[in-house]
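Model the whole thing, not chain by chain.
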Amino acid sequence: VSLSWLAVTLWGGIVGVDDASFPQAMVSRPLPAATLAGLVLGRPLEGAVIGALLEAFSLTTLPVGAARFPEVGTAAVAAMGAYAAAATGRALDPVLVLLAIVFALAWQRLTGVSVTLFRHLNERLAAVPLDSDGVDSGWIVHRHLLALLADLARGMVVTVVGVAVGGPVLARLRPLWGLDAASAVGVLTVCAAAFAASALSLFGGLGQRKRTFLAGVACGLLLLVIVR
Amino acid sequence: MSRMGDAERSMFWRSFAVQASWNYRTLIGTGFAYALLPVLRIRYGGDPDGLRRALARHGHLFNSHPYLVPLALGAVARLELEGADAALVERFKAAVRGSLGSLGDRLVWAGWRPTCLLLALALFGAGAPWWAAAGTFLLIYNIGHVALRLWGLRVGLKSGVHVGERLRTSVVGPAQRWLGGIGPFLVGLLIPVAAAGSLVGVRPSLPWAVTGFAAAAIGLRFGPGIRGPASLLLAAFAAAGLLLGALE
């Protein structure tokens, strides 16, 4: 096991902790999470592409209240790890990106379940008993920090298991691909555009924000002309 | 440095870990007690039993948006240091619990965070280097994040039980309106960039790009409702691609 893979495992733990426990600096968002994993594995561009696509797909998923939601950060790290484990060439492989994205969308459901289980574990580990009328400060500090460490371990485990499962699966499936790579690019493009557009609902939808939205579309088109 | 100044700083840094022991019974109760501990040690300096009782009270059910926890911490710290009655402190916590949660959800999760992410995605799609998109997001987002926590702690310590009135006249309302204006602009900016394949890193053929615009129209119409069907479509396409290859 190389240092890079150990670093990715540790990064998965940090990403898992950042998601809710500490410090919520949003390194757990797919874009930074997958980009840094890609950098560690020597494929920063692929990391950024996988991160950007998963980010577009996750824009409207909000961690509101006690809602159960998919954990996108560790899944993004695992997907990038799986991509790197399965990739054979140095160039970006759109088919492998597509397979990594599908894997991440499935894996984030499982990592979300791990968060729910962890929170149930915390009920026993760190919740002050309802009938308690006195708690030692040492108990509060130790149990709270123990929960933090347990979350770090959870993040590392779901990442390393994700890479261990996803890497061989992607490596086995990639040679089976029977369509051209352009179709994978096309489908990813279509989904990214649809998911990006769905984010308008966060700001009140088209009815309320038509003018600023259309100004944005015009600037986007202009940007494409300038960049290309 | 004063003892209270140290306690405030410690409370601020501890607030970043307030959700570490999140659970379905007391939510962030243990984290709240953990973050408030430096101030409670001052308040109950010569009274270990009082400290134990106070920790049990504060360790029970509490919830808030994590970035607005310092506001509640500051206000509760002030009440505790003023020697307020435990029942009053509990009533105050119960009163702010829901409002700090919903305010933070709207301001941060549905406002500031997606706005910063849309900016980062637009940058990446426009051809910025791989490090610039993630770096810009983390930098800009966390300037707002840390500023909100600092502001919340100061307002809480200064206003005590009157934080609600302070919130009504604060910059939170204008900030939400500003985000409501810039967010749709960035969504609009991102759609052509995404439909042109810039997020994938490879340019699609014209029919796929046109389909991308059509898909964006569907995304606009159905909002988050497209998440399930679009994910299934993506999985089904991947399965079809693999099946065709296996049958060849």
